[in-house]
Fold this sequence. Notes:
single chain; alpha+beta; 3-stranded antiparallel sheet; 8 helices; 12 strands; 24% strand
Amino acid sequence: MCSKPIPRKLYKYRRFDVFCLRLLTHAKVMYSDPRLFNDPLDCDPTIEVDLDMMDLERLCYRMMRRTQPQNPARSEIGNYRYLSSEYGDFKTQPHAEDTLKCMLAQRIKDELTKEFGTFGVFLLSNRWGSVLMWGHYADHHRGVCIEFDTADVGTAQFRPVNYRGARRIRASDLLKWKRDGSAEAKRQVFDTFFLAKADPWRYEKEWRDIRTESGVKEASLRVTAVYFGIQCDASVVQSIVKFLDVIRTLRFTAWHRLTIVSGSGAIISTATRLGRVN
């Protein structure tokens, strides 16, 4: 996956809730469990079997050994061979061999998912004016979009989502990583698992920060603006602005009220106030 310069600003669409307040008042953000994403195919790539049977079994065994003792892992490989024999001799009959490969590939995928299962992802967009994003993630335009400055971070931390790449992990890359310790193969597996997404989602223009554990964590970016949705209640706007002025959390904050351009459906900022906190 080619590198791309990180935008100077990134944005988080949110409904007005405790997580929104926690972000604004205590600089805490949620690193989400990928299994809870609204796209069930996100972080769920398939395994492309490009190894012969012997290497595929070796790979499956190595991945099971991460959490299992030697003998149970070997026993499970034997069980897969036995189950595939219902379709014939896997050593001589193609249908039985294909069945065994499918079983092993599924187990390899399950083991990889478990290995990455504790990881958390912080998701941002590079745009604040997406009508669809406001509708999907900001409580139908009743929420907010929070702007972050990226001057102090880089693509080593935040990475762009790839909407055009293959969503398949090659078994050969997994073997190079697990058996040979290839850093390049590990990077390829990681990028495909966490950063490859189906093309229909490209309107999100998403960037991700990935950590080894999910949950609430300190934000690494500074908030520089808050955009209030076109249906955001005035009491929410006043509460956020007044509260942040009182606690003086932000050094420079622009507050934006938004509206829809009649006829075009585009979102624009109609009122801006720059609040300065010394």
